[in-house]
């Protein structure tokens, strides 16, 4: 008879004895019954030569699945698929791969340093179902590890750690990156699980496809790689392991593409934080606590999200209509009424005590108007690196030409070089010109289209200057003639 059979038989004898005792217990006074049960348990433990450890899927009132449970699940999924007879299939990565794990009540045997370990996956179903529960179901799953008592130290110490480490290593290898976004505070219904919703993150942008000055690109790349390897350094200097980036520049210069490239480089998740959906500073803190390590927390268009900019500035500035971006202004006004997140709340989110929960995180703000931001928000230490994403220069164009047309040089490059120096055009607009619109369009016609667009942009810019000069002249005359003009 194997140890496994022995354990099963002994286990069932003990279980039967416990069952019989449960029937008899009701005939005893409560105190006496509890007393007998205590000694009975001790007796069972004395004769039962095994130790059993359970790992529950949810611990206490936590909404999140236990990290240990998930690590064991992954560890056993590599192990159990060979031995277990009943398996659960979990389809991942757009139905491209299947992860198998032990089905409920299935048992597998693992071996560690010559010692046998029995794993069972079990679930308990509550007698009374909750009328309303946040969990998808009320069944409580757990893994039970059983081994011989004489190996207790190895099981509790080395083996459990080995399983958790292996499980986490498998997670890193098979990790699917996610793009999270926060739902409106009023839709959380007190349930942590509804705070962030996510989709799989599969953005194709990389540092190779990102068009910008190669030296600047290399500097950012090194900065990111150094950060990701600096766990010990941050600990040594007493800083939490996080780094802030401010990406600024006109629309279409590659700020969002840069964030995607960063996530792809470091294999991080992205939390796209929509500040206007957050009710107040308390909710902001809850969201922060619920983000994982190895992630990028992004607040796009920070100047439009909240009135974070005007608090320390003159009121007069606020009263001016946002003529440049009326849609964003309207949105901003609408949202300002709903959210009570303040600048100090946001600063606390970035580098207050709460920000130290979790580690290995990037916090990125993007803006089209860096000059509008409160200096406190972007000072070094909060936003450690300020990166300007600007209009297309010749270096940027060369990366786009290589990516979009497979061209490293061409006779027309010299003309484009000269024209880019004279005209402001975003990489997004340049990329649009370089993209062939039909099968007949070859590289040269794309370059010619770009030259035409650059000529048009130059002419438009010239007309704007003439127009503004005319308006300026007119305004001076108006000011001379009237004392109650708007600017006064
Ligand atoms: N530097 C760049 N390198 C490569 N592609 C770029 C770059 N800038 C813009 N693009 C192209 O233009 C599109 C728009 O760029 P992106 O969304 O990154 O701009 P943005 O700076 O985030 O704009 P906004 O300020 O409006 O959010 C991208 O999908 C990409 O195809
Ligand atoms: Mg963007």
Automatic annotation (TrEMBL):
The keyword Transmembrane does not apply. It catalyses: ATP + H2O = ADP + phosphate + H(+). It holds the Pfam family AAA_lid_At3g28540. GO terms for biological process: response to stress. The keyword Ribonucleoprotein does not apply. Residues 318-336 have a biased composition (Basic and acidic residues). Residues 241-393 form the AAA+ ATPase domain. One of its GO terms (molecular function) is ATP hydrolysis activity. InterPro entries: AAA+_ATPase, AAA_N_dom, At3g28540-like_C, ATPase_AAA_core, ATPase_AAA_CS, Mitochondrial_chaperone_BCS1, P-loop_NTPase. Its cofactor is Mg(2+). Belongs to the AAA ATPase family. BCS1 subfamily. This is AAA+ ATPase domain, ATPase, AAA-type, core, AAA-type ATPase domain-containing protein.
């Amino acid at each position: 008879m194997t140890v496994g059979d022995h354990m099963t038989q002994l286990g069932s004898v003990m279980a039967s004895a416990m069952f019989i005792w449960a029937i008899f217990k009701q005939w005893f006074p409560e105190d006496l019954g509890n007393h007998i049960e205590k000694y009975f348990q001790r007796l069972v433990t004395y004769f039962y030569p095994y130790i059993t450890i359970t790992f529950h899927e949810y611990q206490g009132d936590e909404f999140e699945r236990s990290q240990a449970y998930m690590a064991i699940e992954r560890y056993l999924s590599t192990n159990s698929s060979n031995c277990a007879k009943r398996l659960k299939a979990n389809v991942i990565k757009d139905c491209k791969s299947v992860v198998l794990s032990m089905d409920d009540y299935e048992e597998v045997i693992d071996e560690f340093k010559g010692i046998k370990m029995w794993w069972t996956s079990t679930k308990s179903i509550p007698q009374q179902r909750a009328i309303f529960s946040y969990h998808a179901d009320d069944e409580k799953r757990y893994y039970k590890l059983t081994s011989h008592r004489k190996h207790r130290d190895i099981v509790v110490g080395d083996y459990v750690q080995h399983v958790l480490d292996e499980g986490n290593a498998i997670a890193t290898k098979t990790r699917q990156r996610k793009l999270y976004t926060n739902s409106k505070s009023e839709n959380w219904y007190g349930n942590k699980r509804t705070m962030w919703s996510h989709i799989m993150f599969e953005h194709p942008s990389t540092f190779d496809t990102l068009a910008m000055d190669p030296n600047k690109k290399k500097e950012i790349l090194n900065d990111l790689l150094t950060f990701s390897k600096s766990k010990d350094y941050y600990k040594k200097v007493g800083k939490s392991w996080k780094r802030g980036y401010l990406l600024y520049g006109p629309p279409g210069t590659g700020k969002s593409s840069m964030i995607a490239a960063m996530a792809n480089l470091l294999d991080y998740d992205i939390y796209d934080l929509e500040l206007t959906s957050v009710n107040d500073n308390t909710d902001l803190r809850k969201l922060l606590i619920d983000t994982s390590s190895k992630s990028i927390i992004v607040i796009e268009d920070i100047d439009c999200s909240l009135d974070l900019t005007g608090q320390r500035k003159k009121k007069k500035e606020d009263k001016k209509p946002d003529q440049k971006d009326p849609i964003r202004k309207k949105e901003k006004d609408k949202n300002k009424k709903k959210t009570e997140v303040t600048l100090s709340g946001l600063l606390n989110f970035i580098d207050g005590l709460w920000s130290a929960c979790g580690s290995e995180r990037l916090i990125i703000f993007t803006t089209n108007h860096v000059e509008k931001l409160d200096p406190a928000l972007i000072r070094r230490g909060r936003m450690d690196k300020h990166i300007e994403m600007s209009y297309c220069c010749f270096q940027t164009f060369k990366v786009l030409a290589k990516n979009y047309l497979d061209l490293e040089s061409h006779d027309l490059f010299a003309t484009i070089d000269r024209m880019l120096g004279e005209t402001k055009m975003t990489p997004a607009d340049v990329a649009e010109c370089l993209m062939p619109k039909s099968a007949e369009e070859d590289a040269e016609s794309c370059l010619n289209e770009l030259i035409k667009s650059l000529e048009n942009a130059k002419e438009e810019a010239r007309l704007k200057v003439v127009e503004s000069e005319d308006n300026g002249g007119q305004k001076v005359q108006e000011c001379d003639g009237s004392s109650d003009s708007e600017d006064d």
